[in-house]
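call fold(seq) -> tokens
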Amino acid sequence: MRVLGACVLVMESLTLGFAILLAIKDGLTVATIYGSIISLLLFLCAGLLKRPSGFYVGSLLQFFMIAFSFFVPSFFFMGLGFAGLWVAAIVIGRKGEATRAQLMAQAKAKDD
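ret:
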């Protein structure tokens, strides 16, 4: 779950970096600052996923990512897409961890 979540957050950060270039082209200084801060926070949050609070922070950042569409309207669908990937990373990651724990328990039972 942690690896999938980190991948989504880093890709969001990089994509937001390209969206910042669009905001710079339009001359939006506030959007440039806002986007830079959110991009940095997304990148740093990927390292916070070692703790459960990292997933809460990552979920909160998804809303700020979608809010960037007020500055760059075409980014709304990108934000929704990444929010969907974030939810999928959490759901699939939990299933994967449960399967891994089950397999490790079976391997341990065979050894005993």
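Residues 75-111 form the longest helix (37 residues).
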